[in-house]
């Protein structure tokens, strides 16, 4: 590039020297020189600057091309290095796997498994044993689950049966409360006892109905039966006290009255209104109990 610029300057210099010679030969006047200078539109050195810029742009383009070539070369080398490492890793891995397989086969041969048939039979035995163990375990679990389901089903059926019996007993109690005939009430109480044999309330109310019919001894037997089932049921003592009072067994009647009031204090309000206690009207202990 410097040689080109030097050449341009030499050419310009030679042109100027020849021009000076010609000017010396044909030297114009000062007026002619002023006119020539006024006719100049642009500086004479502009083509030299454009040429210099073009040369610089060309140099920049060449530098960029060399830089691009260097970068592509480096990228190619890095890709080759990566591929080489991957191939080396794969080769090493395969060699290690083959080595492990060879070692495993050698161990199998040493312990006595000399053929793949022996290996297959051993594996089948191990699998069958394991499957058998798992099957037995799950069979036990299923048996436990079936037992729980059976117990739960029985419990549900029993609860349904109890609910059905409770509904029937409730309906019978409503009928008994609406019934005015004592014989009919006794029949209803018997139906309740057929469904719930240990219903002490039904036994006590049946004894009450029997007292209304004058069957005191049978009523006492029913009260004893109710107290055997539940010794804390105050109404059974009350009904038995009524029966004893009707039989004029005042001492037994007073004892049962006290027991009835102990377990059911609300019965005290019925002492003066109970017709069965009419024979106790002159009993001092009974009157003291009423007035206490």
UniProtKB/TrEMBL annotation:
Q: Which SUPFAM superfamilies match?
A: TPR-like
Entry-linked InterPro entries: TPR-like_helical_dom_sf (IPR011990), TPR_rpt (IPR019734)
Q: Which residues form a coiled coil?
A: 135-162
Transport recorded as keyword: no
Its keywords, alphabetically, are: Coiled coil, Membrane, Signal, Transmembrane, Transmembrane helix
Residues that span the membrane, as ranges: 97-116
Question: Would you indicate the residue range of the signal peptide?
Answer: 1-19
Alphabetized NCBIfam families for the sequence: TPR_END_plus (NF047558)
Which protein is depicted? Answer: Tetratricopeptide repeat protein
Which species is the source of this protein?
Pseudoalteromonas peptidolytica F12-50-A1
Source species taxonomy:
Bacteria, Pseudomonadati, Pseudomonadota, Gammaproteobacteria, Alteromonadales
